[in-house]
Amino acid sequence: MTNVENHAEYDKLGFWERNKLSGGYLFKKVVGQRAVSIIRFILLFGMCFMIIQPILNKISVSFMTETDLYNPIVIAIPEHFTTANYRLSAELINYRESIFNSILISLTIGAIQIAMCTIVGYGFARFEFPFKKFWFACVILVILIPPQTIASSLHLHFRFFDVLGLFKLITGETLNLRGSKVPYYLMSMGCMGLKNGLYIYMIRQYFRNIPGDLEEAAYVDGCGTFKTFVRIMLPQAKPIITSCFLFAFVWQWTDGFYSRMFLGNTKLVSTGLSRIVDSLGAYIQRINGVKTTISVAYSNCILATGTLMIVAPLIILYLFAQRAFVESISSTGIKM
After folding, report:
1. Can you give the residue ranges of every domain in the chain?
2. Which long-range contacts (CB under 8 A, 24 or more apart) does 16-22 make?
3. What is the pLDDT of residues 82-95, one digit of tens each?
4. What topology is assigned to 88-331 in CATH?
5. What pTM, to 2 d.p., does this model score?
6. What DSSP assignment string belongs to 156-179?
C-alpha cells in the first residue's frame, strides 16, 4: 500500500485505536494541549480581570447615591440607581466646553507632533549625517528624562522668549509667551513636546524594517527624495503613524503637566478632572450657603464618575483604530 492509502486508513480509525497504535502518545499529547489551553485561559482571564475590575468598580459607584456608598449591603449593584452624579460631574468639569477644547487641542497637537516626528524618524532611519549617533542619543534622553526636570528652564525660556536677540534688539525687550498656546505649539513643531522622543524612536524602527529596495526602485524611476518619501514611504507607514497619533492624542488628552504649564487658561477635561473635588466643595458651599465638609466616599464617587466621562471618548476612538494600532505595535522594534 502507498503512504497516501496508509494515511487514509489511519484517519478512519477512532481516537482510542489511534492512541493504541501510538503507544499512548496521542492521549498524552491531547491532554497536554488541553492543559496548556486551560492554563493560558486562566492567566489571560486573570490579567484581563485585573485591568477591567477597577473600571467596573467605577461604573458601579458612579450610579450610586450617597446612602448606597455607606450601605454595607450594597457592593456592586446600586440599590438606588441614579444618573445625578454624571450631571453634577459634567457641571463641575464644564464638560461641553472642556471636551470641545480638549478635542481641538489634542487633534492639532497630535497632528503637528506626528508630522514632525515622522520626518525626523525617517531621517534617522534612512540618511547619514554628521553626529547622527549623538543626536539619536539626545532623542533617547528626551524619552528618559522626565519633563519636570526642565520645567524651570521652559518657564524662563518662554517668559523671556527671543530669537537670536532680534526681538530685544528691535523692541528693546523680549516676548512674554506665557499664558498662550504658542509655546506648546512651538515645542511640538520642534519635536520637544509630550513623548516626542518615543514617537521618533517608534517611527525610526518602523522605517528601518521597510526594505530599501522600494526606495532604490523609486530613485531609478526618477523620483526625488521628497517624492519617494511622500508617495512610497508614507503609505507604507500608515499603521505606525496611526498608532503614534493615537498615543499623542491620548497622552495629550490626559496630560496635566504641560496643560497646566502652557494651557492653564484653557478649560480642558484633564485639568478639570484634577480640580473636580475642589470644585465639588465650592459647589456645595454655594448651594448651602455655608462651608460643608464633603465625605471622602462621595468625593471619590464624583471623581470616579468624572474619570469615566473622560475615558469614554478614548475607548470609542480605540475601537475604531484598534486594527492599525495592533498591527503597528507588532511590527516595531524588530530590527534594532
Report:
1. 1-43, 88-331
2. none
3. 888 899 888 888 88
4. MetI-like fold (1.10.3720)
5. 0.77
6. HHHHTB-STTHHHHHHSS-B--TT
